[in-house]
Amino acid sequence: MSKSEEYDVLVIGGGISGVEASLNLANQGHKVLVVEKDLSVGGKMIHLSKVFPTLDCSACITTPKVSEAARHSNITIYTYSQVNDIDKKAEHDFRASITKFPRYVDEESCTGCQVCEDKCPVVVQDQYQYDLVGRKAAYVPFSIANPRIAAIDIENCSLCGACERACPADCIDFTQEKQDIEIKVKSVIVATGFKLFDPTLIPRYGFGLFKNVVTSMQMERQLVPTRPFNNVLRPKDGKMPDNIAYVLCAGSRDETVGNPICSQVCCMYSIKQAQLLLGALPMADVTIYYLNIRSFGKGFNEFYQQAKDMGVTFVKGKIGKVEELEGGDLKLRYEDIEQGVVKEANHDMVVLSVGILANDGVTSLFKQNLELDQFNYVNQKDLLANPAQTNIGGVYVAGTASGPMDIPDSILSAGAASSETAGYLRGGNHEK
Amino acid sequence: MKNKIGVYVCMCGSNISDYVDVEKVKAEAEKIGGVLLSKTTMFACADSTQQEIANDIKDQELDAIVVASCSPKLHLHTFRNVAIRAGLNPYNYVQVNIREQGSWAHSDNPAQATEKAIKLVQAGIERVKHSKELSTVKIPSENSVAVVGAGIAGMRSALELAEMGTEVHLIEREHFVGGRTSQWNVLFTTNETGQEVISRLYNQIISHPKITLYTGTNIISKKGSVGDFNLTLKVNPRYIKPECKLDKKKFQEAIDLCPIEVDDKFNFNITKRKAIYKNYDSEFPEMPAIDYEACNKCGECAKLCDEIDLNQQPEEKLINVGSVLLSTGFNPYEPPKGEFGYEDIDNVITLQQFKRLIELNGGKLIYNNKEIKNIAYIYCVGSRQVDGENKYCSRYCCTSAIHTAILVKEKYPNINNFHFNRGIRTYGKQEVLYNKASEQGDIFLQSFEDAPTQVEKVGNETIVKIKDILTANEELEVSADLVVLVTGMVPRENADLVNILKVPIGRDKFFNEIHPKLRPVETVIDGVLISGACQAPLNITESVKSSLSAASKVNSLVSSGEIELEPTMAVVHNDKCTWCDKCTNACPYDAISVTKVNDKEVALVAKSLCKGCGMCLPVCPENAIDLIGYTDIEMESMIEALID
Predict the structure, then answer these.
(1) Residue A430 has pLDDT above 60, yes or no
(2) Total CB pairs under 8 A between chain A and B
(3) Tens digit of pLDDT for each residue in B102-119?
(4) Cys-Cys crosslink for A120: which of A136, A405, B458, B599, Cβ 3.0 to 4.6 Å?
């Protein structure tokens, strides 16, 4: 089945940058299509607990924006969909093909009641809780998902039909097929975000081998209001940790893993998590092992100072190796840079502050080949005057697709992308 | 009176429910007469809850709602929109703040936090009972904006706004455009110089029919408010006739003749310039200017060329704009005499002076007649202060200093760079510069804030000392030919502007946004927006992103030709008013004047000016003024509930 649609702007990626850019353009009267590969819009931000440096709850900021976009009469959102290819025929004339994958649930009639979830006998790891806990094969992705409706994970589904029988709205439909859509747009915004560094690439840190070594995203999920355990627990034995270590620059500023640059957010999110942990576990000690603390943004250095004042320990040191001790505690071998000696310290939980990397596959979407920079982020052709411009006229970049950045910077980047796109749509002199 | 009220008590995940017993708040609310339903919710702002509230309004025919959650600054409009979608008047909704004023403020005392939340919710319910159906007031708006500051941020947003069809008045205090950017040479990540970027923007600005550029101009007064600001500008004389085509030779002769020498601010005072000047050859506007503060009007230059007119007077101009966008930028921190030897030791200069010095120097790097070999950079001067007020990091200086060190090494390969830092913050892709500097042989030494670097004059030598944590706290020293203080950013001197526009200032003294993520370029003053480094330290790309974001917001605000204002405004009961004039004096917005109704003099409130602040209410001896949305009966019922 194939159909054809027209919009002013195609926004690839429904994270905070894509949503912000879409809202700006839609408020100026442009018709926008947002294509999101995941089951929900909201990107990474919707999964965060509180955000630095204001400690606002992330959901409180993300969900209203997402909800405003979802309801906006000038915005169409396709979740669980992918852009296959984009061809620029002429200025203001892009053709793209999109595939909408089947959720096996009728989007219109599902109420998100979760009865299917109850009845589903299949349990798999929950990607939205970063594998900390399980979920069903028939499931609502997470409680503040948008749209908040069920999907069937067909890869893992046993086709038992329990969900279909139980669904009070009769909306489970195993006959759904993927749908191909051809679209014509005048302009494109790439807001494909980032991926997290895979810490198994640094085996000496022990992630995947030692259960009490977790990633910062797994810790983040333990700190959100919708946290899986309703408390912070060590994965190995469910014990509440009382001596937690953070390993900064895990996969950043590290030529050996091919990522020489700084990820720009890990210092700050680690400092934030440390503060939240001191709230959640008042008796716990938190130690942050760092190379340089990069608290550079508005209010960030004050936030760092606040963490010190609260009693977070900062050690300037590079971690060599993590070993597991009997009982699940961990021994960190590190260079204490200040004292110039190699030391060891025991902790009962280790958090790897994983860096962020460019997402793959962006460049091949475009027939005209979207240029990347040396770190595989979308190349910004005119950084000083037109920061959202790419090498293809009419294609703009927003947020972390162009490089590591935090949420405030992503929002401003999206603002720039929407302004530059609006300029292109007006057909004026868009090279400034 | 409303008597089918819905109450929603939000847990805010756990932000509220960790300290406030939301079930108890809900139960107490339920007991109040007129409350039809009372619920708790995990996230009131989540899409599904919004839908639930909308459904309740429709299904239960609610005539008013109360949401007890966060500050209305965050979500007032979210829930007003829910009401609108469900067909309820949005002013029959009251938001009660039990987070910032409840759980967060009293996290040490959950029992009393709960008690306070109950009281606040009770008061909110009482208020909503008396709420009236209101609608927003629409006032016409000029599709025009005053962009204040013609640095890179102001120039870039001016251009974008003009292209969007908004009339732009670009106002620059100096006689030339380009701000700080034009003072820098090659910029990081590109091979473009600051002056080149400014040239390409200027050429588009000056030819754009929708942009009027004012140089040498200050805003001296403001009347009106969003949609209709009346600004008085003072245009200072340039003493050069507008159509001047001064040729270069004549101009040089005029400079040679001028007897006045002053510090050249463009070169951060390391050189002098004459009263008639241009900062650099290709500067814009292309004609020179005469510094009216420095000029003694000797008339020597005017004898030489007719284009000079020393009789020009300051002019006042009135402009009418819908919005004001501030992009007034930053100043480099100015170290007090003696800080790291500044102004005490003759070879201590700031990074900004050093950047100009490199550009002005030729084949050899010379300062104070001495060839420079060893350069010591001292970081975090004026930033991350332990004792001083500037607790913030200035963000751009690590990268800027390292970038400068690379450029200077390329230009003068024999020099040595020593970086006395407090932890290098070359965030993101800027890390490549740090690596490059290390590879070219720069030496990095680091201390913590409790052991600052020392600068001393020992005989003829300037010694820079540090307890270096990168070599196990060894005391290291360098005999420096030049000490470069890597000074951070402070806001420009903007006291007048702050006073005129009432822009909010943060703890760091930069302009403050409403919310760094939700409304990062807007201020609490409607219609006054901010962008670039006047808000916080930012580099050029970041400033431009911020200015483009602001352009989008300004355009959305003013381009439709009308602006919706809150109906929260003062209203005069003509029968009671005796026109004593007390309210006029109390009004900070000049919104009240006198009018005649049936031959009786009464006060008149201008809708476009009234902000609903309520200042006029208590001074009225006749109690003749009411505030719509906060009427006496609403306020009194809230107070009753709170003290009950």
Answers:
(1) no
(2) 222
(3) 998 998 899 999 999 999
(4) A136
